[in-house]
Amino acid sequence: MAKILLKGNEAVVRAAIEAGCRYFFGYPITPQNEIPEYFSKELPKVGGTFVQAESEVAAINMLYGAVAAGARAMTSSSSPGVALKQEGIGYISKAELPAVIVNMMRGGPGLGSIQPSQSDYNMCVKCGSNGDYRNIVMAPGNIQELVDMVIEAFDMADYYTNPVVILADGLIGQMMEPVEIKQPEVKREMPEKTWALTGKNGGEPHRIINLNLDANELEQVNIELFKKYAVIEENEQRYEEYKMDDAEYAFVSYGTASRIVRSAVNELRNEGYKVGMIRPLLLWPFPEKAFEGKDHIKKYMDVEFSMGQMVDDVKLACNDKHKVEFYGRAGGVIPSVNEVVDFAKKVMGGAQ
Amino acid sequence: MGVTHKIFCAGFGGQGVMSMGQLFSYAGLLAGKEVTWCPSYGPEMRGGEANCSVNISDDLIGSPVIKQDATVAVLMNVAAFKKFENQVKPGGSLYLNSSLIHEKPSRTDINVYYVPVNDIAAEMGNTKLANMIMLGAVNKIEKIVDDELLLEAFTKVFGEKKANLIPINREAIAKGAASVG
Amino acid sequence: MAVLFEKTKGMTDVKTHYCPGCTHGIVHRLVAECLEEMGELDNAIDVSPVGCAVLALNYFNFDGIQAAHGRAPATATGIKRVHPDKMVLTYQGDGDLASIGMCEIVHAAARGEKITTIFINNGIYGMTGGQMAPTTLPGMKATTAPYGRDVSLQGYPIRVCEMLSTLDGSKYIERVAVDSPANVIKAKKAIRKALETQKAGLGFSLIEVLSTCPTNWGKTPVEAVKFVKEEMIPYYPLGVYKDSTKEEE
User: Fold this and answer.
1) A178–B67 C-beta distance less than 8 A
2) Would you say the pTM of this structure is higher than 0.90?
3) From CA A109, how far away is CA B69, in angstroms rounded?
4) Does domain C24-248 have CATH number 3.40.50.970?
5) Total domains, chain B
């Protein structure tokens, strides 16, 4: 298929439908409105169903029902709306159901702004509902990755029976880039959804439980969940290394911020700095393996559109908190390449 | 490293500012280049102002954002001129719709081109052609893509139903080119 | 020996956790009997709420899921949109439906979701220990209204059937009580009618059941039944509030 120019939000819809998603539940919020709008136009054409929910809270709970019924389904929102969805995401995690949630992040806290931001790292990667649980979090850096990740997210969600969050930002949602809609490279053997609510049909009733009044029983549920998370942590560490071969300094950045860093790396390389970038493609599990065997790196320079929410993970991954420096802009402000270059030069000193 | 064009377009809604950017982007895609198109969005659109940032490059595009580093800025009205003169990087080019903008920029470190696109469009009998005239002028000087690719992009952006408008748009691009040549 | 009464196949052989004199058990049985009589036990999916009925899915002998507090109508919407041919019901208490979940029930009704809601109104929060509910009667005591509900401070009870019957998407709405054998029989007919409304694909249906909570009311089971008859029914009149099933058919 030839590449076509697609806006990120529309690309999400095209990718989801390609992945077999037939149900979407959502509520309007900028900057992701094209997702529900485009779904409402496209789903009827493929025999699917679009429901404009009365709230983000209702939308995530509709999703809970639809995925419990065995369907491929998703919701999308932007930061304040995703905050409202946290409760439902916790329920879906506890019930071990597959669901895909897209977050086109905007500035916060509170109602914040509508400009691109990365300040939901804590909420989505560390998980903002009650209890011990984990979500797989994918962080696309361009529209092609967004398409590929959305398609794979449905497979991963089904495979691990776990929510998958696509953590992008408003710019990725609004931006157009050339893309190709294609099936994922990784083909997984999909488990049959024997647990789905389809009526008992002469057999035993399917029961999707969210409450365990017995503490020992609930502890066991937690233990089983964390066995699954350990498998995901082992299998799904993904990252890109950019110009890291001879690097003495490394940026760490994801999503749209990583693109500005990529340009900064190119400029710094032109000036002779031995600098590269580690770009996490998944934020949970965090790609700790990317930091192995890199004791020679003098400094890690974390660049985000936030006040530094990923910094703790970088410190843990490199196992030396003194090596980690941070530069970020918040509230929807996007740093220029020059700002990032200047920050890096301060960190590196005259180390050309 | 190959060439990267960073094109910033601004004006008010209805001047075809967003589609100007999309036409360049699609033409770039058809030419086999890497492209990005980023719109302004939200309340700033409500006031009638619109702008977009386009990158067309031989290489993978890093930052899609234009922040005072445009190689080309196209400003279509006075409000955009007052706000975005500094978007062009030193040595870059500024294209002004001189039908509406009668001032001159204070900067001396950039190339400035005055294109009376509304007047030319009026002469052609169709004010909607103003953005295509500007496109022709910019492409003549900057040589971003083949003119024919802009016309091929036209049906990608506006749909096959508008294919009948290609001849008049071809003429508009030529008039724009002639105005700066 | 002739069999005079047989337990419905729609209920499991599990001892329930409900208190003596609580009418949840009666309502569970009525729902299960109706589904069995309609031949829908294989097709039914229950959405249990947060509250005393959170474990209802263990007592029903058909599919079930536990929803977040108040969100059962949203979760049921998701299920029904995926399986339009299944019987989907929510079973919700007054705190779940009329307080935290008011938004979801109103919009499910407004959308005309083809689901059936069994709404248990006993005027109190049962599971959490007798706090004031949106349906607590004026003057009625609760652990968060120890001096009795003072409407000048705590507002008035909500009449759910009256409110939801104004919505075009709701097709069958009736309020019943389970305070006497005669009313239990009427309640069963109402539940059957609501389920038939869903099966015919007509739209949203809801049966409000005036129920007891002897434990949290501080009454004996007999006093509790009397309270339903003498205090609750006058405030929440029984009857059919909406029946547009004829027009729809």
Assistant:
1) no
2) yes
3) 30
4) yes
5) 1
- Choose, out of C38, C48, C62, C65, the residue to mutate when testing the contact with A (most A CBs < 10 Å): C65
* Non-local CB neighbours of B135 within 8 Å, separated by 6+ positions: B20, B23, B24, B150, B173, B176
DSSP run (H or E) holding A87? helix A79-94
Partner residue opposite C66 with nearest CB, options A201, A206, A209: A209
- CB-nearest to A176 from B1, B25, B67 is B25
pLDDT tens for C100-117 read: 999 999 999 999 999 999
What class, spelled out in words, does domain A4-189+210-235 have in CATH? alpha beta
Q: Read off the pLDDT of each residue in A310-334 and give the average, rounded to a whole number.
A: 97
Domain coverage including residue B54:
4-180
Q: Where, residue-wise, is CATH 3.40.50.920 in chain A? A: 240-348
Distance from CA of C226 to the nearest CA of A (A): 33
pLDDT band, very low/low/confident/very high, at C247 (cuts 50, 70, 90): confident
pLDDT of residue A13: 98
Q: Which chain A residues touch B1 with a CB distance below 8 Å?
A: 266
Tell whether C71 lies on the interface with A, counting CB pairs under 8 A: yes
Residue pair B94/B114 in contact by the 8 Å Cβ criterion: no
A226 pLDDT above the threshold of 80: yes
CA distance C240 to chain A (A): 27
**What residue ranges do the domains of chain C occupy?**
24-248
The average pLDDT across B38-42 equals 82
Query: Which CATH number characterizes residue B69's domain?
Result: 3.40.920.10
**Domain A240-348: assigned CATH number:** 3.40.50.920
Both tokens of C82, joined, read 């995926």
Q: How many angstroms from the chain centroid is the CA of residue C110?
A: 18
* Predicted pLDDT of residue B14: 86
Where residue C74 falls (left for φ over 0; alpha for ψ -120 to 50; beta otherwise) is alpha
pLDDT tens digits for range B113-169:
999 999 999 999 999 999 999 999 999 999 999 999 999 999 999 999 999 999 999
